[in-house]
Write a structure and sequence with these properties.
- With 114 residues, the chain is an all-alpha fold.
- The chain has a single domain, classed as 10k-s Protein, Hypothetical Protein A, Chain A (Orthogonal Bundle), CATH 1.10.890.40.
- Helix content is 64%, strand content 0%.
- It contains 5 helices and no strands.
- Helix 1 packs across helix 3 and helix 2 packs across helix 3.
- The radius of gyration is 14 Å and the shape is globular.
């Protein structure tokens, strides 16, 4: 429930700022937002953290039914966030790809369906 509320708040914030809600971004943009969101002295740090958290978990939740990865019971949103962020950080050569693809690749690698 908390995750749903947080994602809704992030999307509302995006709408109020005049940005497109369903924007598909690349890994470079997502990595920058996540990095700036983790830095409390960065400009718009809370907004960028919310964008990072909401985007990653929104994609992850939306694609669970596709069977591309299998999240074990009890996996928290923060763990999904950490897995995706670490994957994007460790694969700078792939940041040109779309953020949803990178998120799926990260989750598929960490939580494969056996």
């Amino acid at each position: 429930m908390f995750r749903t509320i947080l994602i809704a708040l992030v999307f509302c914030g995006l709408m109020m700022r005049g940005h497109a809600v369903a924007e598909v971004i690349d890994g470079t943009k997502l990595f920058a937002d996540c990095r700036d969101g983790d830095n409390p002295s960065a400009r718009d740090s809370p907004y960028k953290w919310g964008t990072c958290f909401g985007y990653i978990n929104g994609v992850a939740d939306a694609l669970v039914p596709a069977g591309l990865y299998c999240l074990p019971a009890g996996v928290k949103a923060g763990q999904v966030l950490d897995v995706a962020k670490l994957y994007i950080q460790d694969h700078p050569d792939k940041r040109y790809l779309t953020a949803p693809k990178l998120i799926v690749d990260a989750l598929r690698e960490k939580f494969p369906c056996n």
